[in-house]
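Hi F.,

I've been meaning to write this up properly since the lab meeting, where we talked about keeping a consistent format for the predictions we share between groups. The idea is simple: the sequence comes first, exactly as it goes in, then the structure tokens exactly as they come out, then a line or two of notes. No screenshots and no reformatting. I'm using this chain as the first example so we have something concrete to point to.
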Amino acid sequence: MKNFYRLFVLLPALLLATLAPAQTCENTPNSGADFKVVDASTGTEISTLCAGREIRLVDNSGRQLDPSVVRYATGAAITCTGSDFSTNASYTPNAADATRGFVVITQNTPQIVGASGIIFSKRLEVKASPAPTFTLTSCSPDVVQITITDQVYAANLYTVKIGNNVFSNVDRSQPRTFSVPAGVTAVTVTGNYAGNSLCNNSSTQNFTPATAPRRPVLQQLEVRDKDIVFKFSDIQAGFQYEIQIAEMGAPGGYRTIARLITGNGDLEYTLLNAPLPACYRIRPSSACDATSSAGLPASNQVCTVDLGTISLVSTSANGINKLTWTTFDPVISTFQIRRDQQIIATIPGNRPFEYFDNTASCGTTYSYQVTALVDRAASASNKSSVTTAAGTAPEPPRLVAGFTLSNKVELYATNAVGQPLPNELTFLRTSPNPVELGVVNAPTISDTPENLSITSPPTYVARRRDACGSISGDSNPASPVVLSVDPQPEGARFTWSPLGAPDATIPVQYQLVRLALNGSTIDIIPVSGLSYVDTQPPTNQSTVRYRIEATGGGLATASYSNLVNVTRQPRLAMPTAFSPNGDGLNDVLEVKGRFLSTFVFTVIDRNGQEVFRGTNRTQTWDGRINGRAPVPGAYAWRFEALTDEGKPFIQHGAITIVR
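Output, unedited:
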């Protein structure tokens, strides 16, 4: 009955709606029609829409209309045709709406009795909400730099999230650095609109934390005219590098004068029109701002070497080029001298900074360069050239003469301070039997004079010829010590000639050196004058070698005389009889004497049979033959040995066994 009543009441209304006039396409803002827009996720009423975020449309006319008969349409303008309307009361703004900047939502309410339905629309702003764009740089292990490049959201309403740390209202106008908690390797940036908390979006970037910087090494700087060529090592990717010059008024004592490109490993860089002379270093800077570069380790400091005058030394030896230079660095360890790119000398880093090249050839042009070495770094000067010219004749050499262990005379020529001379040298024996020994490019030469005599020892001189062809005067006359020996029954008497030394004003001291046959020194005996008698020669060697050691006289090292040998013959003491009867007296036959270290001693009976053989003094004969009791009678013996000089020593005799 109740359902029938409802049908009866609604039937006239449906009939009137069928017969009502058609709607007109115009907005009726004052008709009482209305709807509101609600965010689908939060249920919040909104007036600005976000692209990609769903909304719900709710009738707000207050007429308690059935939602299923209220229709909506969306587009760029009011929708007039009924076919465009839908009963779906939800909508998600799209990219086209955001590009256009708005969307028109048209509401078509159902017709009421006596009137047409109402067309009502709202023009709503639509904002895009893309993921914001930004660049991310890892400055150091715990610092990153973020530059927001996005232009969609409000300029200063970006949020940065790093781990659990959130930074709000970040401005996109400039790069900004942030601290990074340990273990965090991602950064999230969220863009926001002013007055709109729904239209936002986020993007995340992962990063690898920058490695801790190593201390770079300034290996070398080389001055080339007005430029400096730097060579660096331990350069790391991810860092930029600055060349700094030492300057008193700058912060930390250094001022940055150039910024290098980033690199990895080794790097070479040329600084044009560099300040000279000066001290330099290199300092890493992070890829971010100066704050994140503070405290990064700077390299070692290297100072330039300024190669000044290169000139001839006209007052010294002929053909010598002189180099002088300056440097600010007080801790130079060594300098390398290069001539035509080749290292010709390495000298200590002591003042004065100069070097004399005495190996130059006259008329030849050379290019010189000096490199200072400090720790692991090198600083190379500019290059300078000079042509070697002739000057005065060279100073005469100082000549020393002495014998070698093979009894050859060795001559040795030096300069005034005892350094060997590499120039061309002519050596001559002036007496006895004058002869030119040779012309050599070495400081030494040897001679084997005959008929040595202490009354007329050989005498020598040397002359020096420099690279320019000038010849010096003769050196000092040099004579080696000549040693003579007069053997005596027990010992020997030695006499010798005086040493012809380089400096006659300095006394010469002599020592007698005793040597074994293998050349090893037995002992040294200080002596005075030019003679000595050795009354206590070594008792364990039959042959002893002797020579004189001379020092003083301006010698840098000792000079030695020729070697002479003193030989004492072995001595054998044998009894004529012995009595092996066990009474403790003369019971055994044993070898006695001196210098009897290696020998063969044999005993032969009357039948010519060998009955005993001994090869050292511990072996004795008790007269027994094959274990039988001694047989009295005569026996022959033979002793054979070699002296220390290898000469045979043989003796023989007879021995009688008595009871």
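Notes:
Residues 1-23, 312-317 have pLDDT under 50 and may be disordered.
The radius of gyration is 57 Å.

If this format works for you, I'll send the rest the same way.

G.
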